[in-house]
């Protein structure tokens, strides 16, 4: 899937991946897609909850090796 911005949150611990994603999303326009790559094992639950609370759409949450890849559509 195509995306507009990519955020590398590898080796960052909670809450930094969420805070950086929030900052990136705030600079995007509605409908754009943010791709986040993270290694924090809590990231899948954190991003699901973040999207639920903010109204952004979690399009995809995939595990590849020891990395988590998320696609989030800006509300």
Sum this structure up briefly:
The chain has 75 residues and is of the alpha+beta class. It has two helices and four strands; from the N terminus they run βαβαββ.
Structure description:
- The chain is of the alpha+beta class and 75 residues long.
- It has a single domain, classed as TusA-like domain (Translation Initiation Factor IF3).
- The chain has helices at 16-26, 43-54; strands at 5-9, 33-38, 57-64, 67-73.
- A four-stranded mixed β-sheet has the order 1-2-4-3, covered by helices on one side.
Question: Which terms would index this structure?
Answer:
75 residues, four-stranded mixed β-sheet, Translation Initiation Factor IF3, alpha+beta
- Determine the strand fraction and express it as a percent band: 25-35%
Task: Name the overall outline.
Answer: globular
Distance between the termini: 18 Å
What is the CATH topology classification name?
Translation Initiation Factor IF3
How many structural units, i.e. domains? 1
Q: Would you identify the CATH H-level superfamily?
A: TusA-like domain
**DSSP helical segment count:** 2
Number of DSSP E strands: 4
Q: List the uncertain runs.
A: none
Strand order of the largest sheet: 1-2-4-3
Largest sheet: 4 strands, mixed
Structural class: alpha+beta
CA radius of gyration: 11 Å
CATH class: Alpha Beta
Mean pLDDT: 97
- Helix content class: 25-40%
Strand and helix map with partners:
Blueprint: E1 5-9, H1 16-26, E2 33-38, H2 43-54, E3 57-64, E4 67-73
Parallel strand pairs: 1-2
Antiparallel strand pairs: 2-4, 3-4
